[in-house]
Amino acid sequence: MKFAVYFVVAFCLVQACAAAAIGERLHVAVQEATGIFANIDFLSRTIGDGKNRTLNEIIRDVSEEDDLVDIKYVKLDPEYPKRSTPIHLNALAYVKEPIEAATANIKVKYGIITVLNRDYDLCKELRDNLNKTCPVDEGYIEVDIDVDVPGFVPWGWYHLDATAWRDSDQKQLGHIIANVKF
C-alpha cells in the first residue's frame, strides 16, 4: 500500500514537471512567435489614401482622408502602458459631420491569438464613460479618461485594431491600430 502511495505521488510529480516543461516550452514558443510578429512592420503599409500617421509611441491613425473624424492627438500618461498602473488618456478629434449613432469594432490579438473581437455602441460608451450624449455635432470633441490596466495581463505583444462607423450609412469614422508589449 505504501508503494502505491509513493507511486501516485511520484507520478503526480512527474506529470507536474512534464506539464511545467511543456508550459515553459509553450511560453517560449509564444514569446518567439510574438517577437517574430512584432518585428513585422504591419504599420508601414498605406491603406488606400489613408493617413498612416503616428499619434504617439504605440498608436497609429490609419483612417482614410474622407473619414468623418480627424484625430488631432492622443496622449497617454504614462506614455507606455504598464501592468497595474492606470493610464490617463487625453485625445482631441474633429468631427466633420453630425453623428447620430455609431459603432466601433475592437479587435485585440495576443501574438497571433485573437483575445477580443467585439462591437461597441459608441453612444452608450460616451454616455457611460464621458457623460456625453449622441448626436455628436460637427466640431471638436475632447476625451479625457482614466483606464485601469489589470495586473494579470500576460507578458507579450498585443495588437489592437479599432474601426468605427456611423450607423445610418456605414460611413467610416476612423481607424486606429496600436502595438503594445507588456
Let me know the average pLDDT: 79
What class, by secondary structure content? alpha+beta
User: How far apart lie the N and C ends?
Assistant: 49 Å
Question: Would you count the extended β strands for me?
Answer: 9
**CATH class assignment of the largest domain:** Mainly Beta
Proportion in helices:
25-40%
C-alpha-based Rg, rounded: 22 Å
Share of residues in strands:
35-45%
Remind me, CATH topology of the largest domain?
A: Immunoglobulin-like
The total domain count is: 2
Overall 3D form: globular
Largest sheet: 6 strands, antiparallel
The helix/strand series, from N terminus to C terminus, equals HEEEEEEHEEE
Set out the fold topology.
Blueprint (H helix, E strand, L loop, with lengths): L1 H38 L13 E2 L4 E3 L7 E9 L9 E9 L6 E9 L2 E9 H9 L8 E9 L9 E10 L5 E10 L1
Antiparallel strand pairs: 1-2, 2-9, 3-4, 4-7, 5-6, 5-8, 8-9
Polypeptide structure, described:
One of its GO terms (molecular function) is sterol binding. Monomer. This is Phosphatidylglycerol/phosphatidylinositol transfer protein. It is a single chain. The protein has about 180 residues and is α+β, with helices and mostly antiparallel strands. It folds into two domains: about 1-40; about 45-180, Immunoglobulin-like (Sandwich). It has two helices and nine strands, in the order H-E-E-E-E-E-E-H-E-E-E. The chain has a six-stranded antiparallel beta sheet with strand order 1-2-9-8-5-6. A three-stranded antiparallel beta sheet has the order 3-4-7, with no helix packed on it. A hairpin with a 4-residue loop joins strand 1 (about 55) and strand 2. The protein is globular. The protein starts with a helix and ends with a strand. Mean pLDDT is about 80; it is low at about 1-50.
